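// run 5 | inverse folding | seed 20
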């Protein structure tokens, strides 16, 4: 019995040594060290959040990639199957009154009103809670009678409900003031305010913590607020065609040393689009502001 017991003990000892050496060879545990304590989720989540700050629009489980969605050209067509409507574009005359039925498009990801003549947005737009892209170029928002009397254009307060909005295009809308309602859209990645008459950027711009592409070319800007240095994900800033002195440009470069600064005036927006296209190359998430997904 004693010899058999010694054999069993020897086998167990050898097995333990082999297992220990295998663990050591894999680099998971060194000799003389105990099993490392798992870190809290706090640091892991911070890394995860930082990795999510990409220049791609998020994938929608219903509509898929923003580049592949079908763009419908009338509300009537969209209402035939409202839950399946992912993209809607109005071009030409502004729908008057604005169709309240749009709230039935619960999965709408992309909405464009291009050169429609619209001077306002209905509060119902806040019900489009899955909206990721809102394009409103070349509309006379800043030319209403109230605007002529000094009352600047205002987004409806309901726009703050658009928690998934990542791209907002307001190019060429005659805006004379930065719409402060935008500052509640804290998931914005792209913001185009080029071709307006905006004299200053509010200090609250630092609330747009995920902003990567910021186009304010061809406005009336003469300075940038210090808070812009807090936008650590900025990649491109379009500033050409403003009233910025060299000192303001130099200061902006110091505040955003990693961002590409475009100072080419009217070409600023085009260059931003080209830069984005090159960075999205090979990705299904590329889309063109003026023409819609993939320029279609």
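// decoded
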């Amino acid at each position: 019995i004693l010899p058999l017991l010694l054999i069993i003990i020897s086998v167990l000892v050898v097995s333990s040594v082999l297992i220990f050496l295998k663990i050591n060879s894999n680099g998971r545990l060194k000799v003389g060290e105990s099993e490392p304590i798992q870190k809290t989720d706090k640091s892991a989540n911070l890394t995860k959040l930082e990795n999510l700050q990409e220049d791609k629009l998020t994938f929608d489980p219903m509509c898929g990639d923003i580049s592949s969605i079908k763009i419908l050209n009338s509300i009537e067509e969209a209402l035939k199957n409202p839950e399946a409507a992912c993209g809607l574009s109005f071009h030409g005359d502004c729908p008057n009154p604005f169709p309240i039925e749009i709230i039935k498009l619960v999965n709408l990801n992309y909405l464009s009103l291009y050169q429609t003549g619209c001077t306002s947005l209905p509060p119902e737009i806040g019900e489009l809670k899955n909206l990721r892209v809102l394009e409103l170029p070349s509309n006379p928002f800043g030319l209403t009678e109230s605007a002529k009397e000094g009352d600047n254009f205002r987004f409806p307060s309901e726009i703050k409900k658009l928690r998934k909005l990542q791209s907002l295009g307001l190019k060429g809308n005659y805006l004379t003031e930065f719409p402060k309602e935008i500052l509640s859209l804290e998931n914005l990645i792209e913001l185009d305010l080029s071709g307006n008459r905006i004299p200053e950027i509010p200090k609250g711009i630092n609330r747009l913590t995920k902003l990567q592409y910021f186009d304010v070319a061809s406005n009336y800007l003469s300075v940038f607020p210090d808070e812009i240095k807090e936008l650590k994900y900025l990649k491109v800033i379009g500033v050409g065609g403003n009233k910025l002195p060299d000192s303001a440009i130099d200061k902006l470069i110091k505040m955003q040393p990693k961002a590409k600064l475009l100072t080419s005036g009217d070409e600023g927006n085009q260059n931003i689009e080209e830069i984005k296209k090159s960075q999205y190359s090979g990705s299904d998430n590329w889309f063109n502001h003026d023409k819609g997904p993939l320029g279609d």
